[in-house]
Task: structure prediction
Amino acid sequence: MKHIAWCLLLLCQCALGQNKEDDQNTVTGNPYLLKEWCDGVVRFTSGRTVTQFKLKFDCLKNMLLLQFNGSAFATESKVQEFVMYPRNKDSILFRRGYPATDKTTEQTFFNVLLQDQVSLLRLVTRNIIEEKQLVAVSGRMNRRLEEAEYYYLFTNGQLHQLPANRNELPAAFADKKEPVARFITSRQLKMHSPEDYVLVVKKYNELLAAQ
Result:
């Protein structure tokens, strides 16, 4: 029990209660990567690892949530990475400590899709979309969450965002853009899924290793 208490103090900023919000501030949609709580592993910057908690990731706030004995908590900055183990799915690794970008800070968690000479990271987030109501009610607007994701190459200590446009993507691989373009075409990749990006970056690493 002392170990559990220590973990709770180290991990958690605050309990997540049912805070009453003004109707104008409510947003419809699911902010979580997965709706269900998952088994998982949390690793600290100190090297300590804990496995006692259920995990959930809030994509809107880029925040790891923990559940213990029916109570949910938000983690704090000493968490370096965590792994979620959804049922009947592959494990999902998130890590932070990468250089800041125009969309992120060093505290931002990235989904690590591939670790190699050039690694592939995915920023999973939510955009808040405001829509005017057909019948205006006191000037209020409908606000909903829209899923969004961005892909980055991590190499030589730097992050480079990949273009979302399939036709512009090969140019991000510099002198390997032509073989990468041929690979995308031959595999008929639409670049609409993480799996497609993993295939492309794996190919890029193979090209680098062969030169």
About this structure: The longest strand covers residues 141-155.
